[in-house]
């Protein structure tokens, strides 16, 4: 069975500082990895994905993530956080070997303060 | 349509009543998912449809839950004899057959009182 772990319930960062939101995964086939963001009382918005190729993927709003196969990780990063980045972030994995189900982590609340 | 559309956006129902939630997929998206998100929690997979193939119902929590979809059109999620623990946001998401990215609707917020 596939799974995703987001070890931090909440991450606090000062505006202008770099941020990292951690994610590790477990899947039997090749991992397809995703990050989504959820603002209060809204649905999930797609940020970025890793399917194949370059391990560093860039997405919306200046976010990027690095796929590390040996550590089975896909941490989300941004060089300089904004207060408007404060939201709930979800990491997700799908089995690229033919699985259809997208399995989500429990989410990490990012709080960016002035 | 431009995005995944869900209705109703909010629903308050009495315990024991049946509810029906609707999802209009993005045009051309053959794959459709339903997820449940309880307050302060992550996303729980419910069911997956792909074209005319048999759906993956492995996430439905009980026989009170059912979902329908004809071809690549609208899907409905039905909850019979609602219970208070059914209170949650029900999220629909769709993707293209050969695509990898799943796009979510805004959700249907269900409150059972």
* Class of secondary structure makeup of chain A: mainly beta
The number of helices of chain B is 0
Query: What spatial form of chain A do the alpha-carbon principal axes imply?
Result: globular
Seen as an oligomer or otherwise, the chain set is heterodimer
Largest sheet of chain B, described in full?
6 strands, mixed
Question: Strand-and-helix sequence of chain A, N→C?
Answer: EEEEEEEEEEEE
Low-confidence stretches of chain A: none
How far the N terminus sits from the C terminus of chain A, by CA atoms, comes to: 41 Å
Indicate the percent of residues in helices of chain B. under 10%
Residue share in helix of chain A: under 10%
Q: Give the overall shape of chain B, derived from the CA principal axes.
A: globular
Radius of gyration of chain B: 13 Å
Binned strand content of chain A: over 45%
Average of the residue pLDDT scores of chain A: 94
Helical run tally of chain A: 0
């Amino acid at each position: 069975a596939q799974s995703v772990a987001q070890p931090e319930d909440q991450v606090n960062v000062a505006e202008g500082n770099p941020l990292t939101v951690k994610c590790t995964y477990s899947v039997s086939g090749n991992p397809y990895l995703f990050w989504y963001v959820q603002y209060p009382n809204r649905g999930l918005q797609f940020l970025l994905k890793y399917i194949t190729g370059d391990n560093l993927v860039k997405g919306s709003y200046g976010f990027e993530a690095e796929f590390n196969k040996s550590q089975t990780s896909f941490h989300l990063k941004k060089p300089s956080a904004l207060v408007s980045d404060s939201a709930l972030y979800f990491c997700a994995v799908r089995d690229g070997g033919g699985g259809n189900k997208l399995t989500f982590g429990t989410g990490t609340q990012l709080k960016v303060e002035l | 349509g431009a995005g995944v559309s869900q209705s109703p956006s909010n629903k308050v129902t009495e315990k024991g009543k049946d509810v029906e939630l609707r999802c209009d997929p993005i045009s051309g998206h053959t794959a459709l998912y339903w997820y449940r998100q309880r307050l302060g929690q992550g996303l729980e997979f419910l069911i997956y449809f792909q074209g005319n193939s048999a759906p993956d119902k492995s996430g439905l929590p009980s026989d009170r839950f059912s979902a329908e979809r004809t071809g690549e059109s609208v899907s409905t999620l039905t909850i019979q004899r609602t219970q208070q623990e059914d209170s949650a946001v029900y999220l629909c998401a769709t993707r293209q057959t050969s695509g990898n990215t799943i796009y979510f609707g805004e959700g249907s917020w269900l409150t059972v009182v």
